[in-house]
Amino acid sequence: MKYSPFSQEAALGLLASLREEKGPVLMALQLMQSEFGYVDKACVELIANFFNKSRADVHGVLTFYHDLRTMPPTEHQISLCVAEACQAVGARELELAVKNKFGDEVQNAYCFGNCALGPAVMVDGKLIGRASLEKISAARL
Questions:
Q1: PANTHER family from the entry (predicted)?
Q2: How close are the terminal C-alpha atoms of the chain, in Å?
Q3: pLDDT digit string (tens) for 28-44?
Q4: How much is the pTM?
Q5: Domain architecture of the chain: domains with CATH
Q6: Which of these, 25, 12, 106, lies nearest to 58 by C-alpha position?
Q7: How many CA atoms within 13 Å lie on the side-chain side of 14?
């Protein structure tokens, strides 16, 4: 997926589209990540100032949601469900193998709603049920 390079001007333009929204902080953070691939450190202060919130409020939302990234994404993104249903069918063992092989590309997630086909993994936005190291490797191609 191709992202735009971060710039304050572009970020402010995006924030302007949310000016009339109620509770815009989460939407603003999601919009920044959608546009730039991650939420740059400068976005916290921009969002706080734009919506008259404290930096602590914005930072709290940013760190609460695991799907929000504060670093540029790697070439591939692998999200592995580690919720209880997937753990029951081997997610923690798969997590170790996947993190050993792919390192920084891997992040933990909590439920893709695919519990009957666990362990569930999302590779570059594509859901994989009954995931294995082999299936994940093939999906990265």
A1: NADH-QUINONE OXIDOREDUCTASE, E SUBUNIT, POTENTIAL NAD-REDUCING HYDROGENASE SUBUNIT
A2: 14
A3: 999 999 999 999 999 99
A4: 0.69
A5: 8-64 (no CATH), 78-139 (3.40.30.10)
A6: 25
A7: 23
